[in-house]
Each structure stands twice: as C-alpha cells, then as structure tokens.
Amino acid sequence: MLIFSISIICNYVNVLIYIDRNSSIYINLFTIKIKYKYINKCKRFKNVWEDFPDTLSNGNHQFKSDGHFKPYCAKGCSNNFEKINAGCLYLFDEFFKNSSAFNSVAKNNTNIVGYIMIWLSYMLRLITNESDQSINFFYSTYIKGGEKYRNHIAGVSEYNSYVELIGKKHDLTNVDMNKNIISKLYEEFKILCNMYNEINKQNPDCTKCSEDANKFVDEYQKLFNGNNVEGSLYRQVLCTLSNDYDNFKNKYNESQCSKSSSLPTIEKTKIPLKCSENNYGQIFEVSSSSSSIASRLFIVLSIFAAITIF
Fold first, then answer.
1. Taxonomically, which superkingdom (predicted)?
2. Which of 19, 26, 94, 141 is 20 to 30 Å from 203 by CA-CA measure?
C-alpha cells in the first residue's frame, strides 16, 4: 500500500512517500522539496530607483537614502561617479557576489548584466566630465581600475570577476549605443519592472498592467524598427526584454488578471533573429501555479507508481 503525505511549509512542498507491505515493512523512500515562491528580481532595481533616483538634482546625482550603498562608499561618495559606482556594485553583489547569489538570485542567468549596464549607461549619460567621456572614464577608472570589480567571485568557475563578466557579455564603450537609444531601452526596462512589481502584489491593478503592456510592446516595436538590431549589446537587451515580457504574460495569465483584457504580443518579426541561437534566457522567474506544482508531483508519483516493488 502506498501512502502519500503532502504538506506546504515555508514555501516548499514536502512530499513523503511510504511503503507498507504486510504491516511489517516500513520504508521511507525520500522527501522532495519543490520551491515555488515567486522570485522578483526587479526588487533589487526597485531598491536602487527608490533610494538613488535616476534624475539630477541641481545637476548632480543624489541619494535619498544611502542604506544600500554605504558599504561601497569607502571615500564617502562625494561625487557623481562614486555614487553611481556604489549603485552599480550593489546590483552586481545582489546578483553575482558569490555562488549562492549566482545560483539562487541570478539563477546563473548572466543576461541580468545587460540590465545593469543599461542602468549604468543611463546614469552616466546624465552627467559629463571634463572630456565629455563619462562612460569611458567610469569604465577605465572604476571597473578596470577598481579592486571590487576585479575580486574573485567565490565558488563560480565560469566568470572570475565582475570585469570578466562585463567583458564577456557587453561592450560598455560601444559608440553605437547613443544616448537616445540608451534612454529608450532604459525606459522599456523600467516599464517591464513596473509590470512585474504590480503583478506580484496580492491585488494587482490589472488595468495598469494592461496599459503598461500596450505601451511596452508599442515602444519595443518602435525600437526594433528604428535601429540596427545587429549590434551586440543592443540585440542582447532586445532579446532579453522580449523573453522577459513573454514570461510576464505567463504570470499575468496565471493571476486573477487572466479574466481581464488579454495582453498584446510582440510579433515574431520584431524579435532579433539570433535570439534563439544565442539562447538569451528569461531573467524573471514566474511563481509556479498550483497546476504546475501538481504536474511536478504527478511526474514524481508516476515514476514510483511504475516501479515494481517485490
């Protein structure tokens, strides 16, 4: 006789399977834990937006709150570059500080670097230094010349440091990424994050999600039509935005918003051809619905039902 015990504790589904034969043999086969909690990676960016606004005050960047950034302000963050550097390091540490963050937060998805680079480029292009080369100055001074970007990422073999992670994924000094394109990609990313943050609420505003989705798709198609999508960073960010929007639609359709108006779809012709070839994965993980959890359990139980027990 098979006896199944299923419980949900601390966002895990615990499955205990026992086998009792002739009331004399008792075997505890295994315990399975399936994590199903929704992980919203936009939370890290939201922390930055709330405490470090992406607008200038009297020509300078200002912290509203430096709680997240103090550990990265060794020199007091007295100028714009030091403030931006603190925000950038905070984001990298949140996603890639060590193997634990790499696996549990970033989910080994280095495409998040693209979003960090878009944020960084946008913040830098709001200011100018003496040679009007803010991005090049920041890259050479803080990234290539900064110790924290060169530190070894503990427990990760694929990338030795943040410098290597950035270098392998993106060309921060790409001259083709002009200020106008950076701004548009950045705004698309913010719209996407706003949608994720909204749909993750207990009672999401479905109308707002729908309005933002329409705006997102409309702007995405303008971006695709108006620019050369073969550029490395540009194509990568477009691919990631497209994939993460599709993932958001799945979340939307599994929520109470499914009874509201359907969301627009990005036309296949508006998706860079090399997306699938380069395997640009989704950055945002959608919470498993009760049906998907049941499906996983069904697979497990089916396997054991097929085993002949002597």
1. Eukaryota
2. 94
Ramachandran sector of residue 276 (left: φ over 0; alpha: ψ -120 to 50; beta: rest): alpha
Q: What is the pTM of this model?
A: 0.76
CA–CA–CA angle 102, 108, 109 (5° rounding): 120
Residue type, 20: D
- Give the whole-angstrom CA distance, residue 16 versus residue 197: 35
The string of DSSP letters for 159-188 reads -SSHHHHHHHH--TT-TTS-HHHHHHHHHH
Cα angle 200, 206, 209 (rounded to 5 degrees) comes to 75
Q: Which domain holds residue 142?
A: 39-173
Reported as a single tens digit per residue, the pLDDT across 10-27 is 333 444 444 444 443 333
Residue 178, burial from CB neighbour count under 10 angstroms (0-12, 13-18, 19+) = exposed
In this structure, the number of other CB atoms found within 10 A of the CB of residue 137 comes to 16
**8 and 48: one domain?**
no
